[in-house]
Amino acid sequence: MEAPRLYSTKPVQSLKPTKKIPLEEDTGKASDALPLPLYLTNALFFTLFFSVVYFLLSRWREKIRTSTPLHVVTFSDIIAILSFLASFIYLLGFFGIDFVQSLVFQSSPDVWIAEEEDDEVLLAKEDARKVPCGQALDCSLPPLPPVAPIVTVQKVVDEKPVTVLTEEDEEIIKSVVAGTTPSYSLESKLGDCKRAAAIRREALQRLIGKSLSGLPLDGFDYESILGQCCEMPVGYVQIPVGISGPLLVNGREYSVPMATTEGCLVASTNRGCKAIHLSGGATSVLLKDGMTRAPCVRFGTAKRAADLKLYLEDPDNFETLSVVFNRSSRFGRLQGIKCAIAGKNLYIRFTCSTGDAMGMNMVSKGVQNVLDFLQTDFPDMDVIGISGNYCSDKKPAAVNWIEGRGKSVVCEATIKGDVVRKVLKTSVESLVELNMLKNLTGSAMAGALGGFNAHASNIVAAIYIATGQDPAQNVESSHCITMMEAVNDGKDLHVSVTMPSIEVGTVGGGTQLASQSACLNLLGVKGASKETPGANSRTLATIVASAVLAGELSLMSAIAAGQLVKSHMKYNRSTKDVSKASS
């Protein structure tokens, strides 16, 4: 492996100039210039100072009493005055012993020149070493400058890069560790998100006594996540992104980005894409598009709860409620209201379109508008919560499986018999039988809720992470039923996936981060659609369903052909010694 980078090419930003530190194995302290330990030196000078002051005051009082001129001094008086001056100078620099060292132990310019030459030799030696890279970001060695280098950002300790902090940063770190400065306030206090992350990271390491050296800090735009994606960052996690495809859907080809650490997943999905492409492609249809939010309200009696239910579900009142709801956004449009009663409690499930956004915030604002409006006619209504879990978000729920949430999509393809045999290495009959006994019967035996598939969540999670979606919504977005049957007199295979609650967006949240935005751009769905609001997010949902179809087709074929264990043993087993690699 390449040798680690010994110094940074970018200076650390600071509120005051950074003190340059020559590259050495250990930087000496100012107190090292003293012959005694610092605490003994301090005690000695404190004792000397107060003793001399007491002696001089006593002598001057005696002279005044005996009418002796003050300028007449004895040898003991001279010694006392000199001791007073020496101890006074020391105490002036008590909290910064560097002052004493700068007066007494100054180095000549020749010494610094010699040390710089030694530094250049040390850099050359360190660059020649073969040790594991500390970070998987930029392991290339920058060219050595023609002059002796002075490191202002990092120093070498045990052949690993260690950040050198400024004196001001050190004080802030101590304040965070002591609890006097809240960690969450660093960005606002410093005005520099990268510096705040570095200080928070160092404070955390000192508090827990564990190293974060394997977690990258550099190479990320911390300004882009401030106030919207992540709080109190200390670094970022690297996840490799693989490409499956081309995936032919509705006559268009897509290269599908998948962020995952599971071996075989991208390769398997890619094989499914190949089988679909060779068979003429897949067809994906959007059935429904509407995000939901369901507040819980309570009344004094069940009758009052029923009165509100009837009012909300009355078609004559829908237009009025729509006007109130739609005030919150130019994209959010109320589509329907469904209510459920549990005693005195009423759960109101609002559904609305959200354009190219995933839409949770949009629908929540509209719901709040309606609740405020209802208080006029129903003053006894007590709003328990803006979300009453009847939505249902980030939890497996039958209401999502039946009614749908987000985008409801069905995707199908007819795979030719020779493609099943040559590419998928199995037969139509074996796939149909396996799908019935595994995905349908087996899932029913397990009491599955929306899990009538082989591994839809694998593909959904990988695409969600790559494109900046909310990974937690993989729970309901992976609701899927996979169907397979023989067609054309049993020669070919018809395969389909039906997914009622794919929750995706192409604006907002993590979609605006650089890496995730690049993956959306790869699919041609970056940002909001200028022609048709919501078109990009709907296209993304059809791509997700089509990629799930490819993944289902390939995994089921591997199981039918008895290749699953063999493939994972070959591609999902690392022969690398992790303990040595991380050292």
TrEMBL record:
GO terms for cellular component: endoplasmic reticulum membrane; peroxisomal membrane. Its main location: endoplasmic reticulum. The chain crosses the membrane at residues 36-57, 78-97. It is a multi-pass membrane protein. Its EC number is 1.1.1.34. It is found in: Endoplasmic reticulum membrane. Pathway: Metabolic intermediate biosynthesis; (R)-mevalonate biosynthesis; (R)-mevalonate from acetyl-CoA: step 3/3. SUPFAM superfamilies: NAD-binding domain of HMG-CoA reductase, Substrate-binding domain of HMG-CoA reductase. It holds the Pfam family HMG-CoA_red. It catalyses: (R)-mevalonate + 2 NADP(+) + CoA = (3S)-3-hydroxy-3-methylglutaryl-CoA + 2 NADPH + 2 H(+). Gene3D superfamilies: 3-hydroxy-3-methylglutaryl-coenzyme A Reductase, Chain A, domain 2, HMGR, N-terminal domain, Hydroxymethylglutaryl-CoA reductase, class I/II, NAD/NADP-binding domain. It is an enzyme of class 1 (oxidoreductase). The keyword NADP applies. One of its GO terms (molecular function) is hydroxymethylglutaryl-CoA reductase (NADPH) activity. CDD domains: HMG-CoA_reductase_classI. One of its GO terms (biological process) is coenzyme A metabolic process. Keywords: Endoplasmic reticulum, Glycoprotein, Isoprene biosynthesis, Membrane, NADP, Oxidoreductase, Transmembrane, Transmembrane helix. Belongs to the HMG-CoA reductase family. This is 3-hydroxy-3-methylglutaryl coenzyme A reductase. It comes from Gossypium barbadense (Sea Island cotton). The lineage of its organism: Eukaryota, Viridiplantae, Streptophyta, Embryophyta, Tracheophyta.
